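A sample copied in:

***
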Amino acid sequence: MADLIETLSFERPIQELEEKISELKRVQSPDHDVQEAIEKLTTSAEKLKKKTFSKLTCDQIVALARHPNRPHSSDYIKRLFTDFQELHGDRHYGAGHAIISGIARFQGQSCVIIGQEKGRDTALRLKHNFGMPLPEGYRKALRMMQLAERFELPIFTFIDTPGAYPGIDAEEHNQSEAIAKNLFEFSTCKSPIICTIIGEGGSGGALAIGVGDVTLMCQYSIYSVISPEGCASILWKNTQKASEAAEALNLTATQLMKHQLIDHIIPEPLCGAHTDYDQMADNLRNVLIEQLNHFNHLPTEQLLKRRYEKLMLEHISTGS
């Protein structure tokens, strides 16, 4: 977990109780009153956690999905895979650091990993372009997909981006073409593709590595055609309406599951993935094992037929 813990506004009452508990524990007194106070505060803290996280608003879930301490692709790669060898570059223009990719082993089986990475500190955030890939990042992802297909390896993608980079240089390098080509190529890839939304799933920037056989979504992640702020600026010409936009967008895991746009919700620790990286990785590992075992046994023809039918169902569900 990150050394510096940042707190969201609705987490502060919980944090204050936990700080009081820590202060009392540091006293190290055998006094019965002190021990009783610790027990009462601990009980109160647990009740407050359950109450707070049982009725989160869409706006609060957006904040959790963007939490600065939320685990990133690199954190999951360290905990879920072994023998990871990162592969760089798109063989055309650049490295595409907003996407981490390479070969690894999952439960002893060779696989390919493609993950969007935001970076933890300022230097890494700049290096990874705050998780917003340029075309070279998507072309690197395509190269990795083709590598997996050639060697009959399953693919794990980890989605965590506000969206594809909207800058002039991205347009000069044909951003839209890179995303569109990935959508087409991933849809016909002969390798099993397991996609997991671990934080933000923003628009085409997420879809470019989000076409697969199953779409998993962490409990407090989000997935949407546009950010709440972007939606608010278009509909109301006012980004202060972002909370209203978040409610209207149906971007939470529960809402998307209801509309059959995702396949499985991965539960997070009580107060979110950022509070316990190892537990979150264990929760995700169990689901990935189950999904991989299922798709490993499907003949290629059946795999592609099933993926096509899934994409057509999503097409109908969204009315696009």
